[in-house]
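Course assignment 3, question 2. Fill in each field.
Student: A.L.
Task: Predict the tertiary structure for the chain below.
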Amino acid sequence: MATMPDGTPHESPGAARILVVEDTPAYAEALERTLALEGHRVLLAGRAAEALARARSEPPDLVVLDLGLPDRDGYHVLGELRARGFEGPVLILSARSLEADKVEGFRLGADDYVTKPFGALELLARISALLRRARRSAPAPAPLAVRVVDDATLRARYGLTDRQVAVARLMAEGCTNAELAERLGLSFYTARNHAEQVMAKLRVSNRSSVAPLLHEPA
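Answer field:
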């Protein structure tokens, strides 16, 4: 992870947790250093068994995978990851440059394939593209269930009058002062005064902050 000038950790907005599966120390250290400078958190594994264990205990956002591992082939790691339900991007980084190797990698579920030796800038660009694509395709979080706060609670909680409760609900709908006046049969200035009183009692400084106070988790 990158650091600030005072030595404190700094994570960039696009930072991710990246599992690097590489058994050659020089390559592993270079990858760790390059990715950390971009703000990513790097997990290292030098063997297939270690890679699968780390992926299980600390699920990564992306995997950089070498094929020539000492215990099992990198294809085995890729196949196991996909079989276990890992849907994050996998970038194969290997000295194997034959078309058959690349085809096998993509067949097993790899998202990209880079051959060694590689350029650091190109690798970072490919990783950034894979992360962007993964984030765009990630399902949106389910909306929280909320309920409308009833009138009695609003009166007790904020000291609103019946008229102010009605004004607050219209403000939560996005009504302007002119629309408040029309909906409630008031003059513009009276409606404006009511709106200001409501915001004062709710202790908010703008109209957009009214609606969240009129709802709470179900």
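Instructor remarks: The domain at 2-137 is CATH 3.40.50.2300 (Rossmann fold). The first strand starts at residue 2 and ends at 3.
Grade: pending
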